[in-house]
Amino acid sequence: MSGFALLTDPDIERLFASADELLENVGLEIRDDAGALEQLDAVGARIDGTRVRFPAGLATALVRERAPARFHQHARNPQRSVEFGGEHPIFAPASGPAFMRDPDTGRRRYATLSDFERVARMTQASSVLAHAGGGYCEPSDRGPETRHLDMLQAQLLLTDKPLTGAIRDAAQVRDSLEMMAIACDDPDLAQCSLLNLFNIEPPLVMPGHVAAGIRMTAAAGQACLISSYSMLGMTSPASLPAALAQMLAEVQAGAALAQCVRPGAPVICGIYAVPFSMSAMRPIFGAIESALVMTAGAQLVQRLGVPFRADGAVTSAKTLDAQAGRDAALGLGVAALHKGALVLHAAGWLEAGLSFSCDKFAHDVAALAAMGADTGTDRPAHCSDVTSAADLLHAWCRPEMPPARAAALKAFVEDGRLRYQGAGSATP
User: Fold this and answer.
1) Which residues of 377-410 are buried (b: 16+ CB within 10 A; e: fewer)?
2) Is residue 49 part of a domain?
3) Which residue in 185, 119, 135 sits closest to 400, CA to CA?
């Protein structure tokens, strides 16, 4: 491992032993997915209702012996494909905000599909973001049952970089797999073309939709990003060693489930935490504790033998100011130092993830270019093309997609709207 080593080898062994103790004695609760319980039972886990207990060393062995240390995610444009676990960190923009900082007024408002499309264009135009990510913002002008279809279609048409799918329930995972198969003209998804993100809920809970999503993604030979994203003193212990042991246990259990479904299924694991303010009753992003957790998490995941997910330009700042710049520099610097295989939230994040800012996006992209961030592809990074959001939008060129594939995507989305309307719920 390169970079600063916070943990010694004995520290790492003690944390793995503590994680084993948690998985053996406390276990992990898997809710509403009998299939996951059956598959873990078949490899030797002890099942007690919804509680799964792993004999010491089982989860670690399943991941170390089966999961690849490196793998490629193939983009629909082969020149944009990336390798996780190699020499180059792969950077992706922020995901998850419900709000957008209006590009004209700077005020916070609900996001729209037009905002989502704007970010997709900027991501495509940026030379330092090798991964398109996903879920940049929640388009409030589209219905919650079908907006994931609009978002995926926009990404697939406006960028040809690798991306992440929709994962809020099993139906969204299925739609993501089918839309990616259409866009890549690969009906059987013979190559790893999709990365789906799944968070284990601390402390030690795997919701049914997460378990089902992991199983569906792994069964299709696609990649799972399995993370534990905790709040110190709220959803995990305030003590860093105890929190690290809990998060290590959680990601090992999730990655082990993927290997039960399909040995060799590609996985990325992430360990990240933010301190929780008991006075303000909110998480604090950009704190030094998070940098320490990410440093230690990189060592633990790399010892596990799989690629590491890092977090980049995260901040609690409400606008693009000195705090936002300082927090971004800390997060991106630590992520790059430890060669996070995938650095999420590398551009655009504001307000503890509540809002997306195009100005912050351009600032973060410029910072990455100035750092000399390697793109992980054969396309070099340039500082001159990232001076503002407007410059990025001006530089965007629509990537080519054969008309037949574009038409098939449109037909799938239109059919999906009818399916969801007929079902009357988010799950057909």
Assistant:
1) beeebeeebbeebeebeebbeebebeeebbebbe
2) no
3) 185
Q: Is residue 228 one of the residues assigned to a domain?
A: yes
Tell me: pLDDT of 378 over 90.
Answer: no
* CATH number for the domain harbouring residue 335: 3.20.20.480
Q: Which domain holds residue 93?
A: 66-395
Distance CA 61, CA 202 (A): 22
Q: How many domains are there within the chain?
A: 1
Structure-block tokens of residue 80: 């944009």
Main-chain phi, psi angles of 302, to 5 degrees: -65, -30
Domain presence at residue 377: yes
Q: What is the pLDDT of residues 179-236, one digit of tens each?
A: 999 999 999 999 999 999 999 999 999 999 999 999 999 999 999 999 999 999 999 9
CB of 219 closer than 8 Å to CB of 262:
yes
Closest CA to 45 of 65, 32, 62, 67: 62
The answer to whether the bond into 203 is cis (omega within 30° of 0) is yes
* Residue range 270-305, pLDDT digits in tens: 999 999 998 889 999 999 999 999 999 999 999 999
Tell me what pLDDT residue 127 has. Answer: 92
The pLDDT, as a whole number, for residue 339 is 81
Q: What is the 3-state secondary structure (H, E, C) of 20-75?
A: HHHHHHHCEEECCCHHHHHHHHHCCCEEECCEEECCCCHHHHHHHHHCCCCEEECC
Q: Is residue 52 part of a domain?
A: no
CA distance 238 to 336: 26
How far CA 185 is from CA of 83, 94, 166, in Å, comes to 21, 28, 19
Q: How many CA atoms lie within 13 A of 365 on its CB side?
A: 32
- Residue 150 pLDDT level (bands cut at 50, 70, 90): very high
* DSSP H or E stretch at residue 271: strand 267-277
DSSP state of 381: P
- Looking at the DSSP bridge assignments, the partners of residue 109 are 100
CA dist 316 and 284 (Å) reads 6
Instruction: With a cut of 90, say whether residue 387 has pLDDT above it.
Output: no
Beta-carbon contacts of 372 under 8 Å, excluding residues fewer than 6 positions away, are 381
Q: What is the mean pLDDT of the chain?
A: 93
pLDDT cut 70: percent of the chain above it: 95
